[in-house]
């Protein structure tokens, strides 16, 4: 006995009816009561990546703080050298003292007690020299 069917499968590689179901529309609603087409949404993941990169650039690395501290320290030492030279010749510039007082107020981080002690002594000396000129900066 031989059974023949009209639906023969000759290979596994052929696509079946499941593959064709999305290619044609079997049901299309008519009229204005049909569902509206959903609006496409903008990709959110792309902007999140850019925001994260910008935030990381703003933070800076661990060496960035050290480099900034070194620059401030060198500029403070240069200003102190200029004032020392002025003191040796007996002509201290009030503008240099004002600049040094401004630098001292900006440089404080209150992270190292020994460094803060040295900065306090420098600030006191600047205040004394400014007082000699009749300038009494606010403390």
Q: Helices and strands: which structural class?
A: mainly alpha
Q: Total number of β-strand segments?
A: 0
Query: What's the average pLDDT?
Result: 74
DSSP helical segment count: 5
What can be said about the biggest beta sheet?
A: none
Stretches where pLDDT falls below 50 for ≥5 residues?
A: none
Strand content: under 5%
Beginning-to-end CA distance, first to last residue: 113 Å
Q: Work out the radius of gyration.
A: 39 Å
Order of helices and strands: HHHHH
Folded structure, characterized:
Helix 4 packs antiparallel against helix 5 (113-132). This protein has 5 helices and no strands. With 139 residues, the chain is mainly α. Helices cover 58% and strands 0% of the residues.
What labels describe this entry?
139 residues; mainly alpha; 5 helices
Short description:
With 139 residues, the protein is mostly helical. It has 5 helices and no strands.
Please describe the topology of this protein.
Layout: H1 17-20, H2 45-59, H3 62-89, H4 94-107, H5 113-132
